[in-house]
Structures are given as C-alpha cells and as structure tokens.
Amino acid sequence: MRKKSPTLSLLKLLLGLFCLSRKHPVLMLIVLGLGLGSYGYEVKIARPALLYQGAPQSRDAKNIDTWFRILRNRGFILGYSDLRGNPLWIEYALIPAVENMPSLKRPNHFETDWRSINRVSHESYQKSGYDRGHMAPNYAMSHLYGREGQADSFLMTNITPQKSKLNQQLWQRLEEEEIKHFAKLFGKVWVITGPVFSGTVERLSSDLTVEIPDAFYKIYMTETAPNKPPIALAFLIPQTVNGKEPLAQFVTNIDSIEAQTGIDFFTELDDRIESHVEAAIEQLPWDLQAVSKPPHH
After folding, report:
1. What does the pLDDT look like over 153-163, one tens digit per residue?
2. Which of 1, 79, 175, 187 holds its CA 20 to 30 A away from the CA of 67?
3. Binding site annotation covers 118?
4. Is 139 a domain residue?
C-alpha cells in the first residue's frame, strides 16, 4: 500500500482548518484562545514555579551544541538536547524528606520520553560500558513527589551516560547529602545539575545518538534570610573518579561551570548579586566538611 506524503497530509490538514474557520469562525477563535491560554500558563506559571531566578540560557545562540528544548516534569524541569541525546541542565527544589518514609519500589526499566526526537531508549545503553545516570534523582523525586515524580525521573530525557564508579558511589553520595544534609540545613535548596562536554566528541557504541560527557556539575543555591543575597555551592566531577574521593575535592564556582558548559544560569538574578555569587567559593555555610568524606563501613 502506498504511503501518503507527509507534505500532502499537512496541506490537507491546513486546508481543512481553513474551511472550518470559514464555516465556524467562533469555534476557531475558541480553539485558538484555549491554545494561547495553555501556552501562557506553561510559560508564565508552570515553568517559573520550577525555576530559581529564571531559566538557564545558551551563552552563544549560534552554538548548536548548547541548544535545548525545555521539558517540564513532576517535580523537576530540564533543557534537553536532541543533538547530544542528553539533558544539558536539570533543575529541581529540595526540602527535607520525611523521616522514616518508606521508599517506593524502584522501576526496573527506563522509558523513552514521547517528547524526544531521537527516541533514546532503555536498550540504548545496553553493553555500552556506562550506567544510566539519573540527573533528577530517583530518591528525592520519589520521596517528595510520589510515584508520578519517580516515573518522570525514569524518562530517558533525565538520563546521561555515567561510569559506574561515579554513578554508584560518589554521585550517589552527593545525591544523598543534598536532601539529607543541605536541605535539612537550610529548609529549601535549589539544584541545577547536568553533563559537561569537552574535547573530542564520543558517543555510545550501542547508540550513536547519545554523546558521552566528560564530567558533571551540581550547583546548589539557597536563601539564608529575607533580603539577603543567596549563597551557592558548586561541584565539577569528572567521569574518571574512583568513587571514594572527598566531595570537597571537586568544589568550584558557577563561573567555571558556565564557561565549560556554555550555559548562563540564574538569568533573572540582579547582575551585581549574580556576579558575586557566581564567582564565590563558600564551603563553610554548607558545612561540607561534615559530609565530604565517604562513610566508613
């Protein structure tokens, strides 16, 4: 059976809509109004609620490596690159988890995100030598946002290739401390995290649509008091870790992460405050030394 041309189908659809608008102009105005209203809600209300001081932006609009589409999920939001098969940034807010709250059963399969163009799947990582590394963590999303938050964290648009020693040891430690230590310390902490690409482009042997990052970043931001500037803590962690290093070894500033990712964070923060916060390296307020070293077994 001969397949219809996509161009022909689109022309028929447009012609149908044109005829409908002539016959039922009021109906078309209602549909148009609903569409604009939905878009306005998404951009003006839903997305800002998941962002601290504006959405991240590409520092160079001509650099396609830093282009992304914003995808909103339950409990977190991200900028996804179909070109790289990776989220370039993921943002979520943390509050302390309820003590002794039972954990939801972990899903045994990751799901392809219907919104992705490149259709990265669970099978894309099989026999690749890399773990499926969560960016918005399963533990935090499931404890704070329930089964829906956990399900969204298992979408492949939230996943990036990580070496096992990073994913299962050092990165996991950092994910635990951000909710059990940092969030408990301040009450609420904003997190932006994602991959860093540098040098030669390398892709998964099992799926060439997925680029392999060289390192990963985590940025924590919190407000300690009303009318006071926020404080930040940032990490830049390479894929090559052995997993047992102290977390303090990877502390950096936001300026360095922006330079390496080509992404501008906290775009709505006052320029003077932004310049100070993004250049500073302040471990003391976060009591990092208390959790820097891995626990002894």
Report:
1. 999 999 999 99
2. 175
3. no
4. yes
Residues 206, 130: one domain? Answer: yes
Domain that holds residue 33: 1-46
**Per-residue confidence band for 48, with pLDDT thresholds at 50, 70 and 90:** confident
**Residue 36: inside a domain:** yes
**Does 113 share its domain with 168?**
yes
Residue 72: name the closest of 103, 131, 115 by CA: 115
- According to the 3-state scheme, what is the secondary structure of 23-79? HCHHHHHHHHHHHHHHHHHHHHHHCHHHCCCCCCEECCCCCHHHCCEEEECCCEEEE
By the 8 A CB rule, do 39 and 50 touch? no
pLDDT tens across 114-138, in order? Answer: 999 999 999 999 999 999 999 999 9
Q: Which contiguous run of DSSP H or E holds residue 88? A: strand 86-94
Q: What are the backbone dihedrals phi and psi of residue 249, each rounded to the nearest 5 degrees, phi first? A: -65, -20
Q: Is 297 inside a domain boundary? A: no
Cα separation of the two ends of the chain: 65
134 is catalytic: yes
Helix axes of 271-279 and 254-261: crossing angle, nearest 10 degrees: 90
47: confidence class by pLDDT, cuts 50, 70, 90: confident
pLDDT above 90 for 142: yes
CA distance 269 to 80: 23
Both 137 and 20 in a single domain? no
**Residue 17: is its pLDDT beyond 90?**
no
Question: Helix (H, G, I), strand (E, B), or coil: what is residue 187?
Answer: coil
Q: Which residue in 168, 162, 175, 166 sits closest to 211, CA to CA? A: 162
Position 252 scores a pLDDT of 98
pLDDT at 206: 96
The CATH number covering residue 164 comes to 3.40.570.10
Check 109, 122, 134, 181 and give the catalytic one. 134
If asked whether residues 156 and 33 sit together in one domain, one would say: no
Same domain, 137 and 245: yes
